[in-house]
Design a protein that fits this description.
The complex is a heterodimer. By secondary structure, chain A is α/β, with parallel strands linked by helices. In chain A, 33% of the residues lie in helices and 23% in strands. Helix content of chain B is 34%, strand content 23%. Classes of the chains: A alpha/beta, B alpha/beta. The interface between A and B is large, with 37 and 35 residues.
């Protein structure tokens, strides 16, 4: 059974001022499932809507439409404070900035004790021991020494490990990691990715790994979703999607990171304002045909859970 | 090795950095760096945050601000010692001889001035040129970097991050400098935009013939664009070699670890190890080889080697023509 399932998730934001009737389609009709013990990568460039998906899943925003199935109910419709609190303890988030996400005047111990107390995870007498266990789990040793430190006494990688330990404190089923390594030094990024791999295996956590980096997505993910202008344009097992990409946008991204020449018109992956019918990638697409200008392509499965949103490479009626 | 012989042997040295030591207060950010850049050459300088790579660039541009100061060493440009230049000479030296594109260059544009006017200001500070002529040249330069010449009339906020970075590159080209320093020029940009800009930059380099000092943490990018690469760690250059040599046979364990930190997009999906630990705090740099606390080859089993690794600083030595390494392991071989 999936740990969390998203169906037709959509979020639009109103534009300001004279354009207040226009709406930005930040996330448009996104569906996927997160499985226990698996990493799903959500990749896209800036503005593509990937972080909005994370914020919807943590209930920082309410979706415009769509459902978030969790624990037999629709998490997007939770209204009672207690229910939301419970949901948030099950679905934890790790942020990009390990400098901003820890309180500079509190020790590591404080950061880890707080969730344990608030969510009453363990009896009072056990808290100290649990803090040490958590620190050991994320590779911060000796735990007693680390627990007494303040964030500024730790390196970026160590801080991100504290943030991960904090997320683990409440024993979540789902962890959303939003660019957890992009602010870290190159040589310590792999260590954080390896830690996530270890946690998904040992704790059966369902990870959503949000990134703009295809190579790291391939490194840790089982499945991948590629977002462009608010829509998922391709999804499937990571080796298939990156090995035999169907959508021209996925191909463009791969060309760019492979260091091959990119051709074609420049454009932006940002969310569209009141997008007209038609494919959102059409202006940059080398394969575009008439239909691409007229009707919005649907995600079509072409085999083995691999689907793409493209009239040409994944036609609805082949 | 054949690769070394095939590397472009350019005749004249443009920039020569010798024994450069720079401190911020009591923190030694750059500790004895030697670096040569020849005419028309692309030299990559790679390293992690805090390794001193940007400080090297800022020193070349002579834009260090207190508490940063040069403790010793020299920088000569075409034989002239920059330290002897007057403020006025330095002002002309920047942009005209050496220009620089920063990571946050897109924020370096004045938000309340049209793009064209910023070109006019810069050009008129360096030569006698009319406003109309400067604007014409600005338009032509914008076209060279893939923008519309009418964008001289735009304000920076009307342009995307990638477009602003192109404007900055156009400005860097404006006075035809012999050397352009790129300090993480595309790090803040999306991959496709990054690729487009670097492609265009290569074409420009081909036409204008300037030399480039390309500073980045992204070693994979340098393997592609640079002729020669220098790897910096904790204020020192630990290895330098022609790019193909470095890609194929890196000798310093730090270089090897850095190359092993980028997961591949093709081939088998294997677990990588990266580099254990974190870059050192330069207020208290490790004794001996600065990399030894993180080095997989530094173990007490070999007592004699271990003693050298932990107490003696390795010096850069030429292992084969053009390939320099500072490592006790390599010295011992």
């Amino acid at each position: 059974m999936s740990a969390l399932e998203v169906r037709d998730l959509t979020k639009t934001f109103p534009m300001g001022g004279a354009l207040r009737r226009a709406r930005v389609h930040a996330v448009d009709d996104v569906s996927f499932a997160l499985e226990p013990g698996k990493v799903t990568a959500l990749v896209g460039e800036s503005g593509s809507g990937k972080s909005t998906v994370a914020r919807l899943l943590t209930r920082l925003y309410d979706p415009t439409s769509g459902t978030v199935l969790f624990d037999g109910g629709d998490a997007a419709r939770l209204r009672r404070r207690r229910d939301i609190l419970h949901y948030r303890s099950e679905v934890q988030m790790i942020f990009q900035d390990p400098f901003g996400s820890l309180n500079p005047v509190k020790t590591v111990r404080h950061h880890l004790e707080r969730p344990l107390r608030i969510h009453r995870v363990v009896p009072h007498a056990m808290i100290e021991r649990r803090v040490h266990e958590l620190l050991e789990t994320v590779g911060l040793v000796p735990p007693a020494e680390i627990a007494a430190k303040y964030p500024h006494e730790l390196s970026g990688g160590q801080r991100q490990r504290v943030a991960i330990a904090r997320a683990l404190a409440v024993e979540p089923k789902v962890v959303l990691a939003d660019e957890p390594t992009s602010m870290l030094d190159v040589s310590i990024r792999i260590g954080i990715l390896n830690l996530m791999l270890k946690l998904k295996d040992e704790r059966e956590i369902a990870f959503l790994y949000i990134t703009h980096d295809l190579a790291s997505a391939r490194y840790i993910a089982d499945d991948i979703l590629v977002m462009y202008a608010g829509q998922v344009v391709e999804q499937g097992p990571v080796e298939r999607v990156l090995g035999e990409p169907l959508h021209p946008y996925t191909r463009l991204l791969l060309t760019a990171v492979h260091g091959e020449r990119v051709e074609g018109r420049r454009g932006t992956s940002s969310a569209a304002v009141d997008p007209p019918d038609g494919c959102r990638f059409v202006d940059r697409c080398p394969l575009a045909v008439t239909a691409c200008h007229r009707t919005t392509p649907q995600l079509v499965e072409t085999g083995e859970a691999h689907s793409a949103r493209c009239h040409v490479t994944a036609p609805a009626n082949p | 090795m054949t690769t070394v012989l095939e590397a472009p042997v350019t005749t004249k040295t443009l920039l020569e950095v010798r024994g450069l030591v720079v401190e911020y207060g009591r923190v030694r950010a750059v500790d004895g760096v030697d670096l040569d850049i020849r005419e028309g050459e692309i030299v990559g300088l790679a390293g992690e945050s805090g390794c001193g790579k940007s400080t090297v660039a800022n020193t070349i541009m002579q834009i260090l601000r207190p508490p940063a100061h040069v403790v010793s060493g020299s920088i000569t440009f075409k034989g002239d010692d920059l330290a002897r230049h007057s403020t006025e000479e330095l002002r002309r030296f920047r942009w005209q001889n050496v220009s620089m594109v920063f990571q946050s260059a897109m924020n370096a544009l004045n938000p309340v001035m049209r793009v064209g006017d910023q070109f006019v200001d810069m050009m008129q500070a360096h030569e006698r040129i009319s406003r109309r002529h400067s604007l014409e040249r600005a338009g032509a330069l914008l076209e060279r970097v893939g923008l519309d010449k009418r964008q001289v009339r735009s304000y920076p906020h009307e342009l995307s991050g990638g477009m602003r970075q192109r404007v900055i590159i156009a400005m860097a080209l404006a006075l035809s400098p012999e050397l352009i320093i790129l300090d993480e020029p595309t790090t803040a940009l999306d991959v496709v935009v990054q690729r487009e800009i670097l492609q265009e930059f290569e074409a420009l380099k081909h036409d204008f013939g300037f030399a480039v000092l390309f500073i980045t943490h992204d070693l994979s990018l340098l393997l592609e664009f640079a002729d020669r690469i220098a790897i910096m760690y904790a204020g020192e250059i630990v290895e330098t070699a022609p790019a193909p040599v470095l890609a194929k046979s890196p000798l310093h364990p730090y270089t090897q670890g850095l190359l092993d930190s980028f997961p591949p997009l093709t081939g088998p999906r294997e677990r990588l190890t990266g580099i254990p630990g974190a870059p050192p705090d330069l207020r208290e740099p490790p004794s001996g080889c600065r990399f030894h606390p993180r080095c997989p080859h530094c173990r007490p089993d070999d007592a004699a080697l271990y003693l050298r690794q932990t107490t003696e600083r390795p010096r850069l030595r030429e292992i084969e023509p053009g390939h320099w390494v500072a490592c006790h392991l390599v010295e011992g071989a």
